[in-house]
Amino acid sequence: MKYINLLFAMSVLLLAASCDDDETVPMSELTLTVTLPQEMGDDVNPEGLAVTLSNTTNGNETTGTVDETGIYTATVEEGVYNILVNGEKNYISQIGDDQFEQTVTLTGLTENISVSGTAFESEIGLFIAPASESWVFKELYVTGSQTPEGRSYYKDKYFEIYNNSDEVLYADGISIGESDHTSSSDLNIWADMIDEYFVTQLIYTIPGDGSTYPVQPGESIVLADVPLTIQLTMPIPLIYRVPILSGMMIIFWM
């Protein structure tokens, strides 16, 4: 009987420990207010603009759309987030006495927002992205992923740059600057310059003589962080992006 009681007591302890291990991460109700560019006036409805919340710690993403009042709400884990809002809208612009309707791409990004508490509010202002007929960023994948063991993995980062023109472009000489300010916190020495300047600590440049790396119209070049290592060591579920990396590829260290 004592043996049975001991087993029962151990089972209760294990169950209690299991409950402690499964304790959920604190959640927060995030309310995001999205404002359109002033030049678009008050008649444009922001409804339908896409919102992406990227958790910089674990790489998890939460997506949704803005409602007709410019509000987006979501329940997310407490943590540090990058918030991206983008989409297309039509509006009527006026030059002199002439009016014309145009479709523009709107975008806005705020980074390293610390979301905490049961309720958290933030806002983001959008701007009209200039139309490009040459190079555009098609994808910036920098949040990393998770291994089957739940550990963070950051060696699968890459940038995809797209030839948005109707002619062959050469990637030789394309340069990307790495910011030296990664937060708007007052503890950052560049915090008071973020609104006006981009402080660069490193610049990555694609080598070549001007005709080394041709990119056809509608195709891309990928700047990747050790993608060969990813292909050889990471499990299949975590390399669904590898087909992109099978084309022209430049390896660099981020």
General description of the model:
The structure is a single chain. It is globular, with a radius of gyration of 24 Å. With 254 residues, it is mostly beta strands. 12% of the residues lie in helices and 44% in strands. It starts with a helix and ends with a strand. It has a five-stranded antiparallel β-sheet with strand order 3-2-5-6-8, with no helix packed on it. Strand 5 (79-95) and strand 6 (98-115) form a beta hairpin.
List the helices and strands and how they pair.
Blueprint: H1 2-21, E1 27-35, E2 50-55, E3 61-65, E4 71-77, E5 79-95, E6 98-115, E7 119-125, E8 127-129, E9 135-141, E10 145-146, E11 152-153, E12 158-163, E13 169-170, E14 175-179, E15 200-205, E16 214-215, E17 220-224, H2 227-233, H3 242-245, E18 249-251
Parallel strand pairs: 1-7, 17-18
Antiparallel strand pairs: 1-4, 2-3, 2-5, 5-6, 6-8, 9-12, 10-11, 12-17, 13-16, 14-15
Distance between the termini: 63 Å
Number of helices: 3
The whole-angstrom Rg is 24 Å
SS-derived structural category: mainly beta
Spans of at least 5 consecutive residues with low confidence: 6-10, 229-247
Could you describe the largest sheet, including whether it forms a barrel? 5 strands, antiparallel
Mean pLDDT over the full residue set: 77
Give, in order, the helices and strands.
Answer: HEEEEEEEEEEEEEEEEEHHE
What is the molecular shape? Answer: globular
Task: Give the strand tally.
Answer: 18
